[in-house]
Amino acid sequence: MPLADDNQLPPHGPEEIDASHGYERSDIRVTGIVVFLTALGIFVAVTAVLCYGIGKVLNSAMNKEDGPTNHWVNPKAADVRQLGNLPNNPDLQNKVAELTQAFPTPRVQTDDGNQDVTDLHAREDLLLDHYSRIDGQPGQVRIPIDRAMELIAQRGLPVAPAAESGPLMAGDRKPEVQAPLTIGFARTAYELEQVRGEGAHAERPPNQK
Fold first, then answer.
1. What are residue 49's phi and psi, to 5 degrees?
2. What pTM value is reported for the model?
3. What dihedral angle (degrees, nearest 10) is formed by the CA atoms of 130, 134, 139, 143?
4. Is 55 within a domain?
5. Distance CA 174, CA 89 (A)
6. What are the CA-CA distances from residue 89 to residues 33, 85, 102, 111 (Å)?
7. Residue 112 belongs to a domain
8. Cβ atoms of residues 190 and 118 within 8 Å
9. Does residue 164 belong to any structural domain of this protein?
10. What is the extent of the structural domain holding 42?
11. Is 47 a domain residue?
């Protein structure tokens, strides 16, 4: 069935649309608002009752699992500030050290790596200041660095034959050997504090604690 043109639509009656006043003259229905607010209040009340009941059930289950409340379980019954700083337990520290050493490497550093760097420097000092055997090379010994410097001062370093070099190209220059920036590793602040602490302990009289 073909649709009719807009000009052929039947006109609306005056009871359906009355635009003579230029605004809506009918009032809003209060019944719908009252029904909505009532349903919203019932929903909020039911939700609150359900949440309260679920909380009571969970609390009772946790209390049953944890046991009766006492001064050990209830944190409000004991003031931990009165205990002060508890002394360190060497046995507990040794046990923790054994457990951490059992973990595979790499391990998480517990002191920002200060102790690891100190141990590394201590191993380097042992190699630099003492005689030691070289693993896998029988008959060869690693000598201290001071002795190595004395031998070098006495015998000198072997001189390599001068390399033949052609004429420099445009923009080239001879390489210059620069002295190293440092003569070795620098002690960390953690190591310096340990050295100062050991020095102060050594200077302290024996009868003074």
1. -65, -40
2. 0.35
3. -30
4. yes
5. 64
6. 70, 12, 20, 18
7. no
8. yes
9. no
10. 28-69
11. yes
